[in-house]
Write a structure and sequence with these properties.
266 residues; 9 helices; 10 strands; two-stranded antiparallel ribbon; alpha/beta; eight-stranded parallel β-barrel; single chain
Length: 266
């Protein structure tokens, strides 16, 4: 059965510790730890203790590959991925979520596809490469900022992640992307987007990505991974407002992650 997890980034600016508290109180099945500027997220022992204390497993580790985490765990990208795999193994997670390289990381990008495969073979951890998007220089023109590309379905990765907010920026049909990926789709970031140039990470159902349709497709396919809520709650003015958004997202996932069965009398 597909687990519904909570990304620790969904509670920012609150901490990783708060993410486990929310997950446990609301009834999430797991937590994805975003390794970032929160010191707790960088400490394997602290993450393991949080998981044990709350009785919530860690389903994935998100490697520190965002612009604002470029110096977390050093600046050498392969070393950061190795440490992410070590954390994942130590806390019982099978997946590391990773973004494709930025275009200025030329040496890293040159070897990325083969390097990811080699890391999977050496660590036994699945590196699920996430879909990104063209960066828009103007309303009509986009710039390729990721190498070898922002669409993981175009590369021979064994494991991939679909993020609905990123797909909204790119104008991608997420069901079609999932069909192209087939059983290489290992992980989902459940969120939403309006199609603007901003990475909105809306509560699922509040955007234009057809999140319900996508979840029903995932449920009816051979998907064996986890669905993780990754929303932006930074504008929430109170803890109660943030909790309401997290609860709404969980309920949305539970409602639509079902396979429709024919009526017995039809």
């Amino acid at each position: 059965m597909t687990r519904i997890g909570l990304s620790s980034s969904s509670v920012y600016p609150e901490s990783t510790a708060h993410a486990f508290t929310y997950a446990a109180s609301l009834g999430y099945d797991a937590v994805e730890v975003m390794v970032g500027i929160d010191a707790l997220s960088q400490q394997t022992s602290a993450v393991a203790q949080l998981a044990e204390h709350h009785g919530i497993p860690v389903c994935a580790v998100h490697a520190p590959c965002l612009l604002f985490t470029q110096r977390v765990w050093g600046t050498e990208p392969w070393g950061k991925l190795q440490r992410s795999a070590e954390m994942a193994a130590a806390v019982g997670a099978e997946v590391v979520v990773v973004h494709p390289p930025f275009r200025w990381q030329k040496e890293y990008a040159r070897d990325f596809v083969d390097g990811i495969a080699a890391l999977e073979n050496s660590t036994g951890i699945r590196f699920a490469v996430e879909n990104m998007y063209p960066w828009r220089a103007t309303r009509k023109r986009g710039a390729e900022m990721y190498l070898p590309g922002w669409d993981p379905s175009e590369e021979p990765y064994e494991n991939t992640t679909i993020d609905l907010s990123h797909a909204a920026i790119a104008g991608s049909d997420v069901v079609e992307m999932a069909e192209r990926l087939g059983d290489r789709l290992r992980h989902v970031h459940l969120t939403d987007g309006s199609g603007s140039a901003k990475d909105e990470h809306l509560v699922p159902g509040r955007g234009a990505m057809g999140a319900a349709r996508f979840l029903r497709h995932v449920a009816s396919s051979r998907f064996e991974g986890d669905v993780v809520v990754e929303i932006n709650t930074r504008r929430c003015s109170t803890r109660e407002e943030r909790e309401a958004d997290l609860r709404e997202s969980l309920e949305f996932a539970r409602e639509h992650l079902v396979v429709a069965t024919p009526d017995a009398g039809s």
